[in-house]
Specification:
Elements (H helix, E strand, L loop, with lengths): L1 E6 L1 H8 L3 H10 L10 H31 L8 H4 L1 H5 L1 H21 L3 H37 L7 H57 L14 E6 L1
Antiparallel strand pairs: 1-2
Length: 235
């Protein structure tokens, strides 16, 4: 009596449902995207908190820019220097970038899919660039205000000059602090995304190597499983 065995892994897969390998692909390409090693609830909470901070920064910077622009109607003599940031438009287009990136970050925290994380990552990179440009504008504004303060005593209305300069310095200083905070937040979100990608790549590389060492195929099929093997006996 002779026996001949035929491996029928595909049959076992169709009868027993999807293989573990297919579940791994669904986790990678589907709904949930793991950021870092650790509790997922904590990671989502951190993302939502960072996104809310970005939205709040954008709203406050927009409000400060509107208030700074309204001061120019008090006098037309000093507006070219004391309202430099307002004329660059940074409080408006900067706020749009910050609110948009914050909204995407909050959405990625609630449902961290790969598409949302990629969009949030790209928007945060753009917001970091905008925050850097805004930091330059605000620093130049403060430097110009310092020089203009020296000529306030020789102006026609020194009291108004000092009042406008002080108000402008205060508003611009607040915007500078919020811009630096925004820059730190966008960098933090981008670092979390990059570390999550590195961690996912290492897991993808280590899983096939461990399966090869143990003699088990990467898809989790077992040649000794009676459900995946046909035994044909002939005489």
């Amino acid at each position: 009596m002779a026996s001949q065995g035929f491996d029928n892994t595909g049959l076992g897969t169709s009868e027993g449902g999807t293989s573990p390998g297919s579940h791994e692909r669904e986790d990678t390409d589907g709904s949930v995207y793991q950021l870092l090693d650790g509790p997922s609830d904590v990671q989502r909470g951190v993302l939502q908190a960072l996104g809310a901070t970005q939205i709040l920064n954008g709203i406050v910077i927009l409000a400060l820019g509107v208030f700074l622009g309204s001061l120019q109607y008090l006098s037309h003599q000093f507006r070219h220097v004391f309202f430099f940031t307002f004329y660059t438009g940074y409080p408006f287009w900067g706020a749009v970038f910050f609110i948009s990136s914050g909204s995407l970050t909050v959405a990625a925290g609630r449902k961290p899919t790969r598409s949302l994380m990629e969009n949030s990552f790209g928007m945060n990179i753009a917001s970091a660039t905008v925050a850097f440009v805004g930091t330059v504008f605000l620093s130049v504004h403060l430097a110009l205000n310092t020089e203009e303060f020296k000529s306030c005593q020789s102006s026609h209305s020194p009291d108004l000059c000092i009042c406008l300069g002080s108000s402008s310095n205060g508003l611009v200083s607040l915007m500078l602090i919020l811009t630096l905070l925004e820059l730190a937040v966008t960098i933090s979100v981008s670092v979390m995304w990059c570390l999550g990608n590195i961690s996912g790549s290492r897991k993808a590389i280590s899983s096939p190597s461990k399966s090869a060492e143990s003699g088990i195929p990467p898809d989790g099929s077992d040649s000794e499983n009676p459900n995946t093997q046909l035994q044909v006996t002939t005489e």
